[in-house]
From TrEMBL:
PANTHER family: D-AMINO ACID DEHYDROGENASE, SARCOSINE DEHYDROGENASE-RELATED
Residue span, FAD dependent oxidoreductase domain: 6-369
Keywords: Flavoprotein, Oxidoreductase
Similarity annotation: Belongs to the DadA oxidoreductase family.
Name this polypeptide is given: FAD dependent oxidoreductase TIGR03364
Amino acid sequence: MPAQKAIVIGAGIVGLAMARSLAVRGYQVTVLERNEKAVGASIRNFGMVWPIGQPDGPLYERALRSRSIWKKVCDEAGLWYEESGSLHLAYNQLELQVLEEFASFSGQRPLRMVTAADARALSPAINPYGIQGGLWSADELIVESRVAIERLPAYLSEKFGVQFFFNTAVTHIASPTVWAGNRNWFADQIFVCSGADFETLYPEVFAAAPITKCKLQLMRIKPQPGDWRIGPSLCGGLSLTHYKSFTLAPSLQALVAHYQDTLPEYGKWGIHVMVSQNGEGALTIGDSHEYGLVHDPFDKTFINDLILHYLQRFVRLKNWDLQQTWNGIYPKLTNGATEMVLAPEPGVTIVNGLGGAGMTLSFGLAEAVLEHPQSLLWPSNEATLFPA
C-alpha cells in the first residue's frame, strides 16, 4: 500500500517539526515555503529551548519532549547545541522570594536555589554587586537557531526523503489540492504552518480568530575574547513576570507592582532581559514585546538602550561591542491559549499561535497533533470557536 501523502506549508520551526513528525510516521512529505529559506521568527530568537518558562503539567512535559527531539535531531544533523541550563538572578528580596516560592511549589523539576557565591561560581559573567541569590535549572538548552533552521531541511531530506520547494508561495487550498500559482500538489493531509504570514491562507478564519502579532527587538554582542563563556543562560528579575510558570509564586504580584512603580517603561514596552551564548561565543540579548497586526518595521533605539541598561544590572562582560540588532514578529493568541489547531476543511489542519515558545514547544506539539488530534483541535463551529 503506497504511503499517505502530506503537505506542510511553511518551513519555520512549526512546519519543520510537523514535517519530521509526519515523516517518522511513514508519510511521504512535501514542504512548501514561500521564501528561499525560512527568514521569520524561527531564526530571529535566542535559540533557547526553555522548559522553565512553561507551567507544570502538559506544557512542561511538551517542552521536555521537544528538548529530547532537539537533541536527537542536532546529534544526527551535526548541529551545535549546549545543555547550558539557566540561572535566574535575584538582586532584591522580592525577586529572591518569588524564586524560592517557585522552587518550593514547582513539581519534579531539576531546580535548586543557589547562594550569591554559588551563582558567581556557576557564571563568571554575573555582576557580584548586590546579588542575593538565584535559581539554577538544568532543563534549558541552546541551539543556534539561524543555522539549525537553515540546515534542517537537508537533514529531513536525507533521513526521511522529505521534499522541499522553496520560493513557492501557496496561493490557494481546496483539499486535497494545494496551488502555488499555476502549479499544484495533492495530499491526503495538509498542514498550514504559516506563522506570522497567517492572513494569506484562510484569511476569513484568521480574521475571526483571537490572534495578533508581537514584535520583539533583540541584539547580538560579538564573541567574547579568549573563548570566555558565561555558562548558563542568564535572566534578570523582569523575566519572572513574563513566563506563566512563575504565576504559582504567591509573591509574584507584589513583584509586578514593584516593577510598575520602579521600572514603568519596561512594562510599557514588554521588556524583560535575558542573555544566551552560541557556540562561537556571541551573546544574544533581549527582548521587548509590542502587540498589533501591523508594526513599525524600524527598531526603536531607546528600547535597545533600556535592554542594555537593565542587562548591566546583573551581567558583566569582557566585550560589549554590538554585532547585530534586529526585530522579529511572531503570531500571538489573545485569549490565553498556547496554540491554535484548526480544521478549516476536511484534510486540512492549521497549526499556529505558539507565541514566543516556538523553539521550546514545536517538536512536542507536532507529536501531540498527530497522536491526539481531537484533544487539541479547536471546535469547528465558528460561533463557538470565536465567541464574542
